[in-house]
């Protein structure tokens, strides 16, 4: 409840408050912070509030996200205590000024934000779960309506695949690659884009992808493949006109390599699953995020390590703290220096 924050104790920044005398006594001692409820743009579609008496839901529905800042993986705010429900359009949260909009003198610019739907529903007998299920169905209906108003698509040739070429191995399908259209730029520039639109798709297990509902304009095709480092960019740029149905040939991505991979710790998939999550300070807990499986690090000392003739014993997890002794500078680390390797590859 809003009054819980007023009675609480503000922490190092005003958004974070320890609840000292909450309406619900089970929440006493927990920390409320609006940044704890952030979601990636691609998942930030439905959020809101449910009241107890009467049982009424207030929801923010955003079925598409092509207008948002920083691409599908940038995180942003949702709903938080106030009660507040935010339809985020533009922000520099978690990315600072690098994703902020910049304009030159006299520059003309136009962009459509949304659509965003505000949806209210109610239920009898305190059936809160029914409100949530009903709201999710409304999200699907809203997305279906918008899609049929934008019948423009980018579709690969029949049987074509987006292919990733691993160093030293045969080419293989870029299974479950993230493929998108974004304003022209360098590889990975979509992560800093804020003034235009982005349209992303998730490839299937064979690398086939379809991008539908694209606004007319000039784009580059970008992609990245889970488990493979680097960003892909297709040249030349692609012009989308009303009613377009564009087919591409096979796309091949050659991941950057300087030699064979000696070891790999973690997965290059742009999520933090492999990172160590320490136990929180008991006075700074939010039980909403307790109880999940979390990575625990093992620590090993590797002495006399030969990168071309090695054996790692007694390691039962891929995600470890590593201390290398007597190795010298390998380009991936320095001897006797303790460092964390996660979500990366070491290539010698």
TrEMBL record:
Residues covered by the Rhamnogalacturonan lyase domain: 176-247
GO terms classed as biological process: carbohydrate metabolic process
InterPro entries xref list: Carb-bd-like_fold, Gal_mutarotase_sf_dom, GH-type_carb-bd, Polysacch_Lyase_4, RG-lyase_II
Pfam families: fn3_3 (PF14686)
Single GO MF descriptor: carbohydrate binding
Full protein name: Rhamnogalacturonan lyase domain-containing protein
């Amino acid at each position: 409840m809003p009054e819980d924050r007023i009675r609480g104790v503000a922490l190092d920044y005003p958004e974070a408050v320890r609840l000292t005398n909450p309406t619900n006594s089970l929440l006493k001692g927990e920390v409320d912070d609006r940044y704890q409820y952030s979601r990636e743009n691609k998942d930030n579609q439905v959020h809101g509030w449910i009241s107890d008496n009467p049982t009424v839901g207030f929801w923010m529905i955003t079925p598409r996200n092509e207008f948002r800042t920083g691409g599908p993986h940038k995180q942003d705010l949702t709903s938080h205590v106030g009660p507040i429900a935010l339809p985020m359009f533009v922000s520099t949260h978690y990315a600072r000024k690098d994703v902020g909009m910049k304009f030159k003198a006299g520059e003309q610019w136009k962009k459509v934000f949304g659509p965003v739907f505000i949806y209210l529903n109610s239920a009898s007998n305190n059936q809160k779960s029914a409100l949530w299920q009903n709201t999710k169905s409304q999200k699907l209906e809203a997305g279906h309506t918008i899609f049929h108003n934008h019948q423009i698509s980018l579709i690969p040739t029949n049987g074509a695949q987006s292919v990733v070429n691993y160093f030293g191995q045969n080419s293989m399908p870029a299974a479950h690659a993230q493929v998108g259209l974004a304003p022209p730029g360098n590889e990975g520039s979509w992560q800093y884009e804020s003034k235009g639109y982005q349209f992303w798709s998730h490839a299937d297990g064979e690398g086939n992808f379809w991008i539908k509902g694209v606004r007319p304009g000039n784009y580059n095709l970008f992609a990245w493949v889970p488990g493979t480092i680097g960003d892909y960019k297709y040249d030349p740029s692609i012009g989308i006109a009303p009613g377009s149905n564009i087919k591409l040939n096979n796309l091949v991505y050659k991941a950057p390599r300087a030699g064979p991979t000696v070891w790999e710790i973690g997965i290059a998939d742009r999520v933090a699953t492999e990172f160590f999550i320490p136990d929180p300070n008991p006075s700074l807990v939010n039980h909403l995020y307790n109880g999940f499986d979390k990575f625990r690090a093992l620590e090993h000392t590797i002495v006399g390590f030969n990168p071309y003739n090695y054996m790692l014993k007694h390691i039962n997890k891929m995600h470890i703290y590593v201390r290398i002794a007597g190795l010298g500078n390998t380009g991936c680390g320095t001897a006797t220096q303790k460092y964390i390797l996660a979500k990366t590859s070491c290539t010698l």
